[in-house]
Amino acid sequence: AKLPTTGWQCLSKSTFTSLYNSTRGNFLGQVLSKAISDAGICNNCQAKAAFLAIAATMTDDFTHDEAIGTANEFASDDKKYGNSQTGDGSRFRRRGLFGLRGKTMYEEFEKLMAKYQTLTKPETAAIIENAMII
Question: Which superkingdom (predicted)?
């Protein structure tokens, strides 16, 4: 994956990499810094803290880009969150930094940003470059 061009302008590299000292941690730190910059919250410590706390929670401390499990494990969501078909719970599982979940959320996101085709390709919501926009 290509690193964002803004670098570490919104997060402290030393602080972030001391918590997530890996190649993935370095990449995620730069991606998150860009997402924070794009959201316009670089200088708002409370907003940055909330952004990072939610993203860390939704990704199991930045270890997973989507909910992990079998189709059977997601079957209980087949009729929730706007899902209507057998298999929708798995198809529209929680993905991305902020937990896009359920057909309704995927539909709403596609209305806003059709180029991501999240209804026909829901797995694209887990791609980190897309997830930072979501």
Answer: Eukaryota
